[in-house]
Amino acid sequence: MLDELVDTCNQHKLPPAWRKLLWQWREGATAVDWLTLPAADLSKLLNLSWPELTVAIRAYLYGLRPAAPATGAVISPLGECLIRYHDIEARLQQQGIQWREKADKTTTHLLLGAAPIQLPVLKNRPYIFIGERELLKWLDRVEGRYLAMDPPAEKLETLRRLLAGGERQKILLALQIVKGGGMPDELLSDWQNVIINCTDPGLRFELENVVFPYLPAIEKLDL
Fold this sequence. Notes:
The chain has helices spanning 2-11, 19-26, 39-46, 51-64, 85-94, 132-142, 146-149, 153-164, 168-181, 188-197, 201-210, 217-220; strands spanning 74-78, 98-99, 109-112, 128-131. It has 223 residues and is of the alpha/beta class. It has 3 domains: 2-64, no CATH class; 74-142, Rossmann fold (3-Layer(aba) Sandwich), CATH 3.40.50.10190; 146-220, no CATH class. It has a 4-stranded parallel β-sheet. Helix 5 links the parallel strand 1 (74-78) and strand 2. Helix 1 (2-11) packs across helix 2 (19-26) and helix 9 runs parallel beside helix 11 (201-210). The longest helix is centred in the N-terminal third of the chain and has 14 residues, at 51-64. It is globular, with a radius of gyration of 19 Å.
């Protein structure tokens, strides 16, 4: 394991100062404190083509201060987010939450997208990190979107039939249903199969905008 870690550090040209934390992580330590790294270094780690590591760091950041947004919160995106900003801003405003495209001193929550090039200074700043999936699922619940709450079995079966044939119009209809009703976790694997088999660029674009943000980080890596 040590040889593998050294090879990986050399491959990515990681400085020696990081290797202690990486070794702790590779040994399975559950209390690796990634915030001992400067924000700039943590940004670099999050941008490595090392899926296991980036997923682990994201899980750590999300678990630091797990708290749902509340009235008065200010959310800023960090990195390339898949959700459409104008859509999410309107939904957040309905909950008394502000959307700010650039983090500043009023920001309470950082929405962690892909390739977060530069994290803000984190020391002594009680940011709450949240993922796109977590934010969307929270919004679906507080808005009472029925497919995200306790979806009727017959509705799930209807959606499965729409997705099963791979027909463009039926998939677009299913997309419209989940846009209004929320995304049920029970159908995520069905949506993944649709994405994997999709060869239509326009349809793929719609799928990426609507479905991708709901997928767990580790599952996005395979699509």
